[in-house]
Amino acid sequence: MPLNSSISEAVPPTSVASPKATAVLQKQLFRASIAHYPNNAPDMSSAMGSAYEQSIEIFTDGALVIEDNVICDIGDYATVAQKYPEAVVSDYSGKWIFPGLIDSHLHYPQTQSIANYGDQLLSWLENYTFPAEMAFADEEHAKNIAKVFINQLLKNGTTTGFVFTTVHASSCQALFSAASDINMAIVAGKVCMDRNCPSKLKDTPELAQRESADLIDQWHNNGRNKYALTPRFAPTSSDAQLAALGELATQYKDVFIQTHLSENRDEIAWVNSLFPNANGYLDVYDKHHLVRERSVFGHGIHLNQQEWERLGEANATLAFCPTSNLFLGSGLFNMEQARTNNVHVALATDVGAGTTFNMFKTYGDAYKVSQLRNAPISPFEGFYLMTQGAAAAHQLDDEIGNLNPNTTADFIIVEPRFDELTSLRIGENASFEDVFFALSILGDDRMIEQTWISGQCCYNKKENQHALA
Ligand code: GUN
Ligand code: ZN
Fold first, then answer.
1. Staple 156 to which of 9, 205, 288, 358, CB 3.0 to 4.6 Å?
2. pTM higher than 0.90, yes or no?
3. Domains of the chain with CATH codes
4. What is the pLDDT of residues 205-229, one digit of tens each?
5. Which residues contact 428 (CB under 8 A, 6 or more apart)?
6. CB atoms within 10 A of CB 195
7. Segments of 212-315 assigned E as strands
8. What is d(CA 5, CA 396) in angstroms, rounded to the nearest whole number?
């Protein structure tokens, strides 16, 4: 079926919008079971599941009303439907509506190099990652992979990603440009590296600062795009480069910072030898004003007590990437420490060290990691860490992460019984936590029926349609 150039009243609202389609100016009401967190879960440090269970909002027979690109109402179908007699109704009874999912750390240039056998972090970077990233000197390649990458996000229900690009500023342009075509809220940045990597992937302190500043001017808060200063990790940046990026972090206070931290023991030993004057790994970044609100650190598996406390005090966020941590043999993230020290945590895939684009499956592996630590992460907490919890950690919860009126209409429609086994396991009338948990263990992209971004259907499984065809 061809894509429609715009959605109008005559076209069913489930048809996939083409890039830059005009939104429907009529209210649309979606009937389904609905779950979201309208607010932050209270008292995170003592949460251990129950606070999450108490603060979730669930409408078993619910209604979500959108107009143009904004959510205008949510509640029980019986109450909400009578307020909007003029709305176009789509009935998805038996399915679930959730907020669009947030993946807080992943690499689009590693889309093609996902699932490579046999190495731990440092040799994996040398053998697979750097070669894959070198190909992004070619702008056409970057544009093609950006499309495939965004389509993978949509197919898996992810509507916002915190994305590493490559050292080439043009690779960052390609991603922002593709995301803009569907009004997708992407946070991304040009990777900065001036040492310990192939010469073709090296910039300099001055170039990193100038190109990052130019990209901020062009893309930060342009539409729904946001910029993240992106030093890859301490070993590939000199002190001079970190200082140059720290200057930008101080100048542009609402810009994000994303990097890696304490992922692998060999990496940590290397950082200690490269930065003998720093008091540990986190301090390398801290000395250069890179530890603050809106700093997102990937991994943080082998942190010491001082580092946990500093992350909590700085209001920074750790991206917990369980599929990556298991795949590279990096270690088991300590969620209890994060709770105790009031450190924001957001779930993330870390594709291509991560093994899936699917955030449900990512929680499934977070649960297995937490089982190995004998402190299971509940389905409620897992759901929080990919929706409202992530959005609040990133200070974006007035736009994404929940289904509150006046937030942007980013949401997904989930079919819990997408095959014989899930039909058998989930059955009729299953609770939110049972559906969410079973799908996190058994699910894959087949459970995502539709992905809506800014009030437009950007992926529809039934018609196998993506907005970025
Ligand atoms: N540390 C530095 N770069 C990377 C990367 O690309 N992936 C992961 N998992 N860790 C890193
Ligand atoms: Zn990463």
1. 358
2. yes
3. 28-100+402-466 (2.30.40.10), 101-357 (3.20.20.140)
4. 999 999 999 999 999 999 999 999 9
5. none
6. 13
7. 226-231, 256-261, 295-299
8. 30
Distance 121 CA to ligand 1 centre (A): 7
Tokens of 227: 């910029």
Tokens standing for residue 363:
């929680």
Over residues 50-63, the pLDDT tens digits come to 789 999 999 999 99
Cβ(299) – ligand 1 distance below 6 Å: no
Tokens of 108: 């689009």
> Is the beta carbon of 232 within 6 A of some atom in ligand 1?
yes
* CA dist., res. 149 & res. 168, Å (int): 17
Sort strands 344-347 and 465-466 into parallel, antiparallel or unpaired. Answer: unpaired
Is residue 353 lining ligand 1, measured as CB closer than 6 Å? Answer: yes
Tell me the pLDDT tens digit for each residue of 254-296.
999 999 999 999 999 999 999 999 999 999 999 999 999 999 9
Return d(Cα 253, Cα 249) in angstroms, integer.
6
**CB of 129 shorter than 6 A to ligand 1:** yes
Cα(464) to ligand 2 centroid in Å equals 29
In angstroms, the CA 285 to CA 278 distance is 9
The runs of H, that is alpha helices, within 84-183 are 121-124, 130-134, 139-155, 169-181
Sequence-ordered strand ranges (E) for 241-357: 256-261, 295-299, 317-320, 344-347
Cβ count within 10 A of residue 86: 7
Q: Which amino acid is at 125?
A: L
How far apart are the C-alpha atoms of 7 and 13, rounded to whole Å? 7
Instruction: Return phi, psi of residue 425, to 5°.
Output: -70, -45
